[in-house]
Specification:
Helices cover about 65% and strands about 5% of the residues. The protein is mainly alpha-helical and about 240 residues long. It folds into 2 domains: about 80 residues, Arc Repressor Mutant, subunit A, CATH 1.10.10.10; about 140 residues, GntR ligand-binding domain-like (Four Helix Bundle (Hemerythrin (Met), subunit A), Up-down Bundle). The strands form 2 sheets. It has a 3-stranded antiparallel β-sheet with strand order 3-5-4. The chain has a two-stranded antiparallel ribbon with strand order 1-2. Helix 4 packs antiparallel against helix 10. The N terminus is likely disordered.
């Protein structure tokens, strides 16, 4: 349905409005990602394209494109003859192994980035620090705040990887990207650790801004170890 502002409205979900200025596949990507973050589609849940098409009032083509993009992030998986489903939770063992890999890679990436800082890099990195600060108060209770936490946390680490100047290390980090996204997204509501992450990101930023490779790498290691410990403590209390 066309609206006065030029956007269109889903006939099946009137609360959804799609902008004519953006590809519909992009809109569907955002819709599905929001549903994951709001807990409306749980880990391991099947994502039937036909059912989604009827539910959202769009054709199957943009949904296929959106799901393929989500598969690339690691948040969605696809099996032959079975279709797509929301990625499953990482096991406790997998999380610990993931964190061990991150400790090795991100310590090295951060050390390299500290030796190659530029004003543009520091400005972009500082913006993620500010965005994460903004998310802290409500990240464990409001989906929009959690989304800001999720996005700013991911961008902080990606910027550092890109600034390392080592394409091989960056490629190795990117290969873990989907698993890291799964870890962030499926953090249980109330256990995002946003307040800790905000403080730790600022400490890493300060070391990078001071051009101190040893301190930057050490603080990144402490940040990842802290996230690992918080995850373990959270699960042990369930």
């Amino acid at each position: 349905m066309a609206l006065s502002d030029g956007s269109t409205e889903s006939l099946h979900c009137p609360h959804l409005r799609f902008s004519k200025s953006r590809p519909l596949a992009d809109e569907m990507y955002e819709v599905l990602l929001n549903q994951f973050m709001e807990g409306r589609r749980g880990a391991g849940e099947a994502l039937n394209i036909g059912a989604l098409s009827r539910e959202l009032g769009v054709s199957q083509t943009p949904l296929r494109e959106a799901l393929a993009r989500l598969e690339h992030t690691g948040l969605v998986t696809r099996e032959a003859l079975k279709g797509y489903r929301v990625a499953s939770h990482l096991s406790e063992k997998d999380v610990m192994k993931l964190m061990e890999a991150r400790l090795v890679l991100e310590g090295a990436l951060t050390r390299e980035a500290a030796m190659r800082t530029t004003p543009e890099f520091l400005e972009a990195l500082y913006q993620t620090v500010l965005d994460l600060d903004r998310s802290v108060e409500l990240a464990d209770s409001e989906p929009d705040a959690f989304r800001l936490y999720w996005a700013s946390d991911g961008r902080f680490h990606a910027l550092i990887a890109a600034q390392s100047g080592n394409p091989f290390l960056e490629t190795a980090y990117n290969a873990l990207g989907g698993q890291i996204q799964r870890f962030r997204l499926f953090s249980k509501l109330g256990n995002s650790g946003a307040s800790y992450a905000a403080e730790e990101h600022r400490a890493i930023y300060d070391a990078l801004a001071s051009h101190d490779p040893d301190a930057a790498a050490s603080r990144m290691g402490a940040h990842i170890s802290g996230a690992k410990t918080r995850r373990h403590q959270s699960n042990s209390h369930e």
